[in-house]
Amino acid sequence: MPEEKTRRLVQSYLDALNANDHDAALALVSEDVAHDPFDGEREIGREKLRWRLGLEARHFDERFADIAVMSASGGVRAAAEFTVRGTYRKSADGLPEANGQSYVLPGGMFFEVDGNEITRISEQRNPVQWRAALSADR
Questions:
Q1: pLDDT tens column, 34-56
Q2: pTM confidence score
């Protein structure tokens, strides 16, 4: 796939997440997508990713800003760097009590692409900074 097409695919995925349009985001990934969340173990499959996105949306309101998408030669791999702007809305198991804490953190995602689908998404952000932000008094 040409690099520009890969960049557009990744940008479309991030735009769908920013719009809270999980169906649109999931339409861009393969049935057996490998998802590496920044805070857990690898999950395989579109349905597991659907579940993860829904769970995250229940507890957090996040948007990605300052997005820069890069693609490797041949368009098989891509990366996106961004600023995560979020609000912790509802308490989640294993995390501090939610009271509307807001946070701004650097983040990124790495992608593999096959054909017109995203086949791997690996999320990156500093979990220590993220947990510290969730623990902060409002």
A1: 999 998 899 999 999 999 999 99
A2: 0.94
Helix or strand or coil: residue 81?
A: strand
Domain positions in the chain are: 3-135
Could you tell me the sign of the dihedral formed by the alpha carbons of 19, 36, 50, 24, in that order? positive
Which of 55, 62, 30, 25 lies closest to 40, judged by CA?
Answer: 55
Is 3-135 assigned to CATH 3.10.450.50?
Answer: yes
Q: Give the pLDDT confidence of 108-122 residue by residue, as tens digits.
A: 999 999 989 999 999
- In the chain, what are the helix, strand and coil shares in percent, each to the nearest 5? 30, 40, 30
